[in-house]
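User: Fold this; C-alpha cells only.

Assistant: Input:
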Amino acid sequence: MYAYENERCMFLCLQKNLATYLSDCYDSIAVFLCIHIILRFRAVTAKRNVPALDKYWEAVLELLWPRFELILEMNIQSIRNTDPQKLGVLDTRPHYITRRYAEFSSAIVSINQTFPNERTNTLLGQLQIEVENFVLKMAAEFPSRRDQLIFLINNYDMMLSVLMERAADDSKEVEGFQQLLLARTQEFIEEILSPPFGGMIAFVKESEALMEKGQLDKLKNDEARITQLVRGFSNTWKQSVEVMSQDVMRSFTNFKNGTSIIQGALTQLIQYYHGFHKVLSQQTFRSVAARSELINLHHLMVEVKKHKPNF
C-alpha cells in the first residue's frame, strides 16, 4: 500500500515538475524529441508486454503534445505577422528567416518520419505556406522582376538543399519547393534570354502560333525583319551567351544551381533557334535570302557546349 502511494506521489511530482518546465519552454525540437523518446519507450514496453508505465506515458504525452503544438502555432503566427519592410536592407541572397525555417522543418520532418503524426504534418504544412507567402512578400520588395526571381530561386534552392539532407525525397516539403524552384527557374531563363534574343523568340512564338492555324502567309512580307534577326543572332550570340553566363554565376549563391540555370538557358536557346530554322524552312520563306546565313544547328550546339561552366 505504502509502495503504491510512494510511486503515485513520485509520478505526480514528476508530472508537476514537467508541467512547470514546459510552461516556460519554447524549444519545440527538444519537446518533440521528448515525445518521440516516450513513443519509443512505449513501443518497447508494449512489445515486452510491460503495461505498468502506460498511464504514466499517457500523462506525460498529454503535457508534451499541447505544448509542442502551441510553440509550432506561435512560429506560424510569427511568420504570418512579419513585415518585410522592417527587416533591413534588401539582398537577393537566401534570407536568414528562410534558413532558420529550413533547418527547423528538416529537423522536425526527420524526427516525425519514425512515428508519423498527422497533426504535426498539418502544422508543418501551415508553416510552409506561411514561409512561402513570406518569401513572396520579400521578393515583391525588389523593383525588378529579374531580382525578384533571383531572390526566390536562391531561397527555394537553399531550403530545398537543407531539407533534402534529412527529409525523404518524396516528402511534401521537398516536393513543394522542387515545384516552386522549377517554375521560377524556367521563368528566370526566359527573363535572361529576352534582352539578347527576345526578337527571335517572339518571332518563333508568333510564327508557330500562325502555323498551327495555317496562317503563316501573314508573315511573308517580313523579309527585312527576318534578315535582321538572322544577322543579329549570328553577330552577337557568342558575346551575349558569355555575358549571360557571367551574370548568372554572380547572381546565385549555389554554384551548382547557377551552372544548372546556365545549362537550362543554353538548352532553351538551342530549342528556340531550332524552331527558327523550322519556321524559315517553310514554303512561305523560301525566297528569303538570309536563310543561307543561318548558323548550322549542329555547329551551334558544339559552340554552345564551350560556354558551359565547369563546377
